[in-house]
Amino acid sequence: MAEETVTNIWKEISANWDGAEGYLAENKAGETVLIGKYKDGEPGISPMEMLLMSLAGCTAIDVIDILKKKRQLPSAFKIKVLGNQRTDVYPKVYTEFQIEYFLWGDSLEAKDVEQAIQLSEEKYCSVGATLAKAAPIRSTYHIMKPGEKAE
């Protein structure tokens, strides 16, 4: 049996402390996001919320890209990601994730939406694949008519 070749690439960010309770994270392209609190004490994005945002962004990119290829592009799209986080012991890890997909459009086919979500969750979304090793990820979707309100 032939050995599988594995190719890895290191990703890098830096996080600079602002002297209070915030950390300005920056990628190699110079894009930044504040993690923690602003200097005035207002809450920013917590590291655990950032994890949920990463999952939402990763699967959103996949689902829309797949639907574009199927010519099933929604007129609007939203994802809600929930993380069930322990509060009783440290580390306060997530024990379960829930993803809720909302897609608006008049002619979206459920089978295409389901396949796009399945491909993202099972093949393409690296964030989801990483997090799934730590806790289960469950998902649902809703196809909405244009103008219809999501929860």
Break the fold down into its secondary structure elements and pairings.
Elements: E1 13-17, E2 22-27, E3 32-36, H1 47-69, E4 76-85, E5 94-104, H2 110-124, H3 126-132, E6 137-144
Parallel strand pairs: 5-6
Antiparallel strand pairs: 1-2, 2-3, 4-5
Helix pairs in contact: 1-2, 1-3
Task: Describe the fold and architecture.
By secondary structure, the chain is α+β, with helices and mostly antiparallel strands. Helix content is 30%, strand content 30%. Strands 1-2-3 form a 3-stranded antiparallel sheet, with no helix packed on it. A 3-stranded mixed sheet has the order 4-5-6, with helices on one face. It folds into 2 domains: 1-45; 47-144, K homology (KH) domain (GMP Synthetase, Chain A, domain 3, 2-Layer Sandwich). Helix 1 crosses helix 2 and helix 1 (47-69) packs across helix 3 (126-132). The relative contact order is 0.14.
Which architecture of the largest domain would the CATH scheme give at its second level? 2-Layer Sandwich
The percent range for helix content is: 25-40%
Total discrete domains: 2
Strands ordered across the widest β-sheet:
1-2-3
Q: Return the string of H and E elements.
A: EEEHEEHHE
Q: How much of the residues is beta strand, in percent? A: 25-35%
Straight-line N-to-C gap? 52 Å
Number of helices: 3
Mean pLDDT: 95
**What is the assigned CATH homologous superfamily of the largest domain?**
K homology (KH) domain
> Can you tell me the overall shape?
globular
Helix and strand composition category: alpha+beta
Biggest β-sheet description: 3 strands, antiparallel
Low-confidence stretches: none
Tally of DSSP β-strands: 6
CATH hierarchy class name of the largest domain: Alpha Beta
Please state the CA-atom Rg, rounded to the nearest Å: 18 Å
